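User: Structure please.
Assistant: Input sequence and predicted structure:
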Amino acid sequence: MPRLRRICVYCGSNPGNDPSHRIAAHDLGAFLARNGIGVVYGGGNIGLMGAVANGALSQHGEVIGVIPRSLMEKELGHGGVTELHVVTSMHERKQMMVDLSDGFIALPGGFGTLDELFETLTWLQLSFHDKPVALLNVGGFFDGLIAFITHMSRSGFLKPEHAACVLVGNEPEQLLASMAAFSPPDLGKWIEKLAAEAR
């Protein structure tokens, strides 16, 4: 596993109803910066996205934003980040965020956050990358999702080793340690097995 030089943070463009979510986002950004880890995120200046960026910037960290042009034109881009890439589509945004990062952490958010999280997990499952993917489970926000992932596995739609690829922690330090130690299962063998069963 290469050193975690940059972590991509997926999170809401809304602040949510619980102030602890915004605090956790700011603290995560600051924690990563203090540990010399750059932040890659969705480029916004609002909600938890803005809090993550501002937390890292408060500690003079590297912050790279990737934002679609349509959102930039609505003046939602963060003007103070280290780099801000303006792209043409959501797909291009997600691909660039993956390419720039050595690992991924999801904070509380909505459909967009889950879209980014599950696409990144799917790419890991299919061996399109081998980087750790984690949930910072702020105040139990992801408890229901974690239970559903277990349900998918018990229902036979998700191998236990793939379900185990979703790293979970309540504190950034704990989560970062798990990510640094992450080793993906041999997903290639799983794909070969599926292909053989389909013949």
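The chain has a mean pLDDT of 93.
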